[in-house]
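Form 7-S
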Amino acid sequence: MRQCLIAFAIIGLFAAGCVSSGNKMDRQKIESQIQKGVTTRAEVEKNLGTPDYVSMLPDGRRTLIYRYFESQAKGQSFIPYAGMFVGGSNNKQQTLQIMISKNNLVEDYEFSEKATETSSNPFGAHTTEATPASAGN
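Output:
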């Protein structure tokens, strides 16, 4: 019984180390599914789901925004050092913005990804960033 409790506690610690929000997107899939002037808003929503945000422009066009965020704690984050936890996390953010014309066709889109790494220690935190190129336009 005691071994089961320890195993569940360890699994819980590792599960708590990863958080995500939204649906992860694949750049190649997006590029193959979205064609400017051809793909409809209905097809976009069928393939990608309901957008996280929709905004309307004064001229009647719409902007659909899809977002994904993931944060994975580094293993060191669970190891105490001098009474403090050190480590950090690896983060990934994806954003897809799609401009829909008044005729409900894709007018333009932009996909971007950003990866960051956060390191922490007893003296503070530091974030480094690596950003892959955008697609679309």
